[in-house]
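Justification of computing resources. Each target in the renewal requires a structure prediction run like the one illustrated here; the chain below, 265 residues long, is used simply to show the kind of job we budget for.
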Amino acid sequence: MTDTLKIASWNINSVRFRIGIVEQFLAEAAPDILCLQETKVVDDAFPHAAFHALGYRHIVVHGQRMHHGVAILSRVPLVEDDRFDWQANGEARHVGVRLANGLRLENVYVPAGGDVPDRDVNPKFGQKLDFVERMTRWSEGLKGVPTLLVGDFNIAPLECDVWSHKQLLDVVSHTPVEVAALARLQAANEWVDLGRRFVPPPQRLYTWWSYRAKDWAASDRGRRLDHMWASADVAAAATGHQVFERCRSWLKPSDHIPLMTEFAL
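Resulting structure tokens:
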């Protein structure tokens, strides 16, 4: 008998402020596991009770006051967890768990990198590149380990992952140096990009729209910053992938939308 497992990922941009739409998403999409980024809450103040009420009894959090923060909410048991400091400064940007079936699930929030794509002028950009490099070194040690890596990578790698490749070439998140760094990370474990496996390029596929746009849907200046990558064995079990663009129009929305992949395990 084959069991199905639905795993979702969402940069929620403050889990307490947007608790209503998280509850709405869980009720409608019913993932078995939801990985959140940018929770913006310390561990003791995380809204456990709201998720327990919806059946998500297994919760692993790595929080930080007002900034960053990641969490994993699950209906199925989580048997281990870890927290890597790829930022090398103590920021809460990663949490990983193991499932009883052996799957390793890693949830990451890569730094945005500031506004200027030059590490000499903008230290935040250098921190972002170093973060991805540390992830790359980590990925090299995962050979043979069934792993799903999800989260807000803050990089849109393909030309068709942004509304205008030409206009965004010098904009942080789509610069050639970031794209090259992400390509090295992908090659380090031969990660399969599930989004582009199910929505092949050059089809439109965005996960983020700026709050600055008065009508985000009409202007549609999106970028694909959120990703789900799988090791080859896990990718082979993926049976479907959804992008919940309608969530960008919900009450008090995040500027990101959720992704969900279903697996036959």
